[in-house]
């Protein structure tokens, strides 16, 4: 009888988890390389991963050509589907609209307010700053469905114009999962509404990103999935409840400090593909692992050397998290590159998908902490 009670409790708990499958698709870089347009694209749109972290009163995003994880949500009644990036480095939801005539809107799905019986116009404009260019549009509200969760009266942005480089991106829009304190126009984020409307059992969500061509990546709303990690979850308090910002003590290779000497701040960011830091630190890290940096700041290595390249250890709040070369080097038909990108500031690093693929990430908005565990 006791086992029946325990089993019933486990079943009830599992039903409280809401899964948002993520598609691991082709990146903009891969698409442009296949078209022979990558170098021209990078010249026009330099990599600027810090763009969204400069707070200027408007919501921001970076032009990351290596993003490849997307999920499908729907907006409106009846539902209209969109592919979005689930971004822990921003806080607003926005999608293209039928009112947008920019090139970037022509090859993406567009929301049509007239086809939704639950749509309501807002009275404010929205501006999203990119590394280059911007998206402008309007705020509105409607029912948003994410991973089986139906969020009523969610305020979101619909675009009227979009920066040209968005035409090369696979996703239609962005769903921000960071804190309301950095949301444009103080809009209540989607996850906040999930919590406030009692749609999730716990005020936390977790992210599992698969490696290589494996499927199974997902965002789990309302808790964690022990199938996605091994060992214990290490909890790290946030140093700032804006992004998921934590304290980083150092970056070491073979026991030697190679970056973040004396400590720095880092953001766990699903909306950035690379591990990004100050140019001098990143150059030092790439030098230590035997990489050569080209004119675009991309660090290439001999694919045959991966097995002999050293691990890189990130010490966060006293806890060591090691990333092997097999995880920080990406391989393609165009060669091998490290996942260490220039463009961070001395104060702020970004631990993006390269890091999150190795460590299952749990975001607890109430306790204001991030949990990390070795990915299964």
Automatic annotation (TrEMBL):
GO biological processes: digestion; proteolysis
Catalytic residues (UniProt): 87, 269
InterPro entries hit by this protein: Aspartic_peptidase_A1, Aspartic_peptidase_AS, Aspartic_peptidase_N, PEPTIDASE_A1, Peptidase_aspartic_dom_sf
Enzyme class (EC, first level): hydrolase
Domain Peptidase A1, chain residue ranges per copy: 69-373
Molecular-function GO term, any one: aspartic-type endopeptidase activity
Enzyme Commission number(s): 3.4.23.1
Keywords noted in UniProt: Aspartyl protease, Digestion, Disulfide bond, Hydrolase, Protease, Signal
Endpoints of the signal sequence: 1-16
Gene3D superfamilies in the cross-refs: 2.60.40.1960, 6.10.140.60, Acid Proteases
Covalent S-S links between cysteines: 100-105, 260-264, 303-336
The protein's role, per its UniProt record: Shows particularly broad specificity; although bonds involving phenylalanine and leucine are preferred, many others are also cleaved to some extent.
Family (UniProt): Belongs to the peptidase A1 family.
Protein name stated in the entry: pepsin A
Organism of this sequence: Sparus aurata
């Amino acid at each position: 009888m006791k086992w029946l009670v325990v089993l019933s409790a486990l079943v009830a708990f599992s039903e409280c988890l809401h899964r948002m499958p993520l598609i691991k698709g082709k990146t903009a870089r891969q698409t442009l390389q296949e078209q022979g347009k990558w170098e021209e694209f990078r010249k026009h749109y330099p990599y600027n991963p810090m763009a969204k972290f400069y707070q200027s009163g408007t919501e921001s995003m970076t032009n990351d050509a290596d993003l490849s994880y997307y999920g499908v949500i729907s907006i409106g009644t009846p539902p209209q589907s969109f592919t979005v990036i689930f971004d822990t480095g921003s806080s607003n939801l926005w999608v293209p609209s039928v009112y947008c005539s920019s090139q970037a809107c022509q090859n993406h799905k567009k929301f049509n307010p007239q086809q939704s019986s639950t749509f309501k116009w807002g009275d404010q404009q929205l501006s999203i700053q990119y590394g280059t260019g911007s998206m402008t549009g309007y705020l509105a509200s409607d029912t948003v469905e994410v991973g089986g969760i139906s969020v009523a009266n969610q305020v979101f942005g619909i675009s009227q114009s979009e920066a040209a480089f968005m035409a090369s991106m696979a996703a239609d829009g962005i769903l921000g999962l960071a804190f309301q304190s950095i949301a444009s126009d103080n809009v209540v984020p989607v996850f906040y509404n999930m919590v406030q409307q009692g749609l999730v059992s716990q005020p936390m969500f977790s992210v599992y990103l698969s490696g290589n061509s494996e499927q199974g990546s997902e965002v789990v709303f309302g808790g964690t999935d022990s199938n996605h990690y091994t060992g214990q979850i290490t909890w790290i308090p946030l140093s700032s409840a804006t992004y998921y910002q934590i304290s980083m003590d150092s970056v070491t290779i073979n026991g030697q400090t190679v970056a973040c000497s004396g400590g720095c701040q880092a953001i766990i960011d699903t909306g950035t593909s690379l591990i990004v830091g100050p140019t001098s630190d990143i150059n030092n890290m790439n030098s230590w692992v035997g990489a050569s940096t080209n004119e675009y700041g991309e660090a290439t290595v001999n694919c045959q050397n991966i097995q002999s390249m050293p691990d890189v250890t990130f010490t966060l709040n006293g806890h060591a998290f090691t990333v092997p070369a097999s995880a920080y080097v990406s391989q393609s038909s165009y060669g091998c590159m490290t996942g260490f990108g220039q463009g961070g500031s001395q104060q702020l690093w970004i631990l993006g998908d390269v890091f999150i693929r190795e460590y299952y990430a749990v975001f607890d908005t109430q306790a204001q902490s991030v949990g990390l565990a070795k990915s299964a």
